[in-house]
Amino acid sequence: MDVYLEHHRSFCENLARLNMLPVSWDEKGGLPLRKKALQAAIEIFGRRPDLTIGSVVDLKRGGLKIGLIRDGRDITLLICAQGTVSLSRHLPRTRPDIELFAKAVEEPLFETLTRAVPLFTGPRLDRGRKEDHPFTEPFEGFELLRLFRRDDPRERRILVGRRTHSEGIFAFHDARDLPTDIFRDQILCGTTRLSDLLTAYQETSASDPEPV
């Protein structure tokens, strides 16, 4: 099965599982995903499956809180238990501004959503490989780092992965596209930070001789 279809199916199955949770599933009065919120989510992500890539989903009072990163910005999509939708887009660790609010999932919502979060600007999906370099907590929200080279050995890229809802599939961001606030001081091991590794690769790449 195509990796994108596999990922999207797993995402939808996860929403269904959240809907089937019992009341107080966390022993603290937690509510399952309500039917109106589930229906709204299926409609939104059916039209915009790209928004599921690299997303982090949490239950919130019978609704959903979906967090993702696009174009160097944190994006939060809230779907309330009653099916209302709001979207905020902001830089990491800053106060979010509400950019979208809709009482129903209708065409104007998708038009506004496309302006706020354009299509085809997200991370790519790929499977984990033996040469991936896993860390338990490289930095908040991400769980895997890959050093990646294409056929041209002078091109050095650092891809940072976030686990998806499909086993062994990751959403890879190019580290150059992530805001430095996300990983500036995050420790990989010892005193080495992710930003140190990125800087070293950039400096090495810059010092390589130009092709003749």
UniProtKB/TrEMBL annotation:
It comes from the Bacteria. This is Uncharacterized protein. It comes from Gemmobacter caeni.
